[in-house]
Amino acid sequence: MQKMIFVNLPVADLPKAMAFYAALGFTNNPHFTDDTAACMVWSEAIHVMLLTHDKWRTFTSRPIPPTTASEVLLAISFESRDAVDTIADTAKANGGTADINPVQDHGFMYSRALADPDGHVWEAFWMDPAAVPAG
User: Fold this and answer.
1) CATH superfamily of 1-59
2) pLDDT, averaged across the chain
3) To bridge 78 with a disulfide, which of 1, 49, 83, 118 should be the other Cys (CB 3.0-4.6 Å)?
4) Reported pTM
């Protein structure tokens, strides 16, 4: 079996969260989706499990961070600067927040951070490895 990552995120409104991630280009895996959780697929190796607060609490007793906190920053790569702009703009148009952190433009790397409706932060980035400065 190939190595995979399943990012688990607590969400306040499962249908709203599913619609947000679908708008960003994630697809739903119905085999791992019910009224308490949804598996949203980014690639063969990357899956995001959206869990209702009650479902989340079956995995941990740690508190769910408020939407103003950042428990992690999840970075995903894109094929171009335009694709980074498109996903950030799409997030904003679908209930998320674009540019939750300042836009980063280093020439060889460009990123924009967005937050989903529950405040989970994703950093969309493009990088040209051939242009990375030496040293």
Assistant:
1) 2,3-Dihydroxybiphenyl 1,2-Dioxygenase, domain 1 (3.10.180.10)
2) 95
3) 83
4) 0.91
